[in-house]
Amino acid sequence: AGCGNGFGGGVGILQTDLLDSNASIEARYEINIRLDSQASFTFSDPKLFSVAGQEVNFSVYSSLYQNSASLFYGIGPSMPESNQTDFAYNNLLTGIGLDFTVFEKIAVGPHFGARLVRGGTTQQGTSADTVFPAAQLPGFGQWLQMVDLGINFIHDDTDRRELPTRGGRRQFRFTSYLDAGQGDFGFQEYYVGARQYFPLWGKNVLEVR
Q1: In terms of Cα–Cα distance, which of 61, 21, 63 is closest to 45?
Q2: CB 3.0 to 4.6 Å from 83: which of 32, 65, 74, 198, for a disulfide?
Q3: Which residue numbers in the chain have pLDDT < 70?
Q4: In what order do the strands lie in the sheet with 7-15?
Q5: Among candidates 177, 83, 92, 176, which has minimal Cα distance to 136?
Q6: CA–CA distance, 25 with 15 (Å, rounded to integer)
Q7: What is the rounded (10 degree) CA torsion for 131, 137, 139, 141?
Q8: Contact at 8 Å (CB) between 150 and 172?
Q9: Residue 160 CB contacts under 8 Å (≥ 6 apart), including other chains
Q10: Cα four-point dihedral sign 42, 46, 50, 55
């Protein structure tokens, strides 16, 4: 569950040692009171194959994100706050990732993805196309095709890959989002994240991120 502009909850499942191998699958679904939702599925295998004697962690992932009322602040930096509006947002992603251990506890790997993104009319709040002409909103109401190309740098000193009880993971990720010739919608993203695990009593573990 979470809080902020609303309240929500979700459910998830994680299966490790799939079919007596090192593979695992994870599925999650989250929804909030505004009916925004996110679903994801990941399959990973840290020992599926090796390159030059080095095991490669392979993962396949897919996700669907639906937001019924994302904030839109107008066109250009001088737009007044009073012109804040809303738009519906959908994002469907499928991709693969590879991680190579280059030093002890340090892994580097590329990731590749393909996604469909759409921003359009919303029934909640003030829809952007009721304040601004839709023709002035690039890509509005269209499904945009994009390609994700990026690289991960991960430092991992947890006691185990799945369901760790101590240690931490630190990550830096760079992703370039390339549009498929439909306009100038490409951009770059830089992400920094960290998770630290602390054993409590019994089998309970505190995760801080």
Answers
A1: 21
A2: 74
A3: 1-6, 20, 51, 73-83, 181-183
A4: 2-3, 7-15, 24-32, 37-51, 54-72, 85-103, 106-120, 143-156, 167-179, 187-199, 205-208
A5: 83
A6: 5
A7: 20
A8: no
A9: none
A10: positive
Bridge partners, residue 112, by sequence = 96, 149
What pLDDT does 2 receive? 38
- CA neighbor of 126 nearest in space, from 156, 69, 86: 86
136-189 confidence digits (pLDDT tens): 777 788 888 888 999 999 998 888 877 888 889 999 999 998 887 666 777 889
Neighbours of 56 (CB within 10 A): 18
> Is residue 35 a contact partner of residue 7, using CB atoms and an 8 Å limit?
no
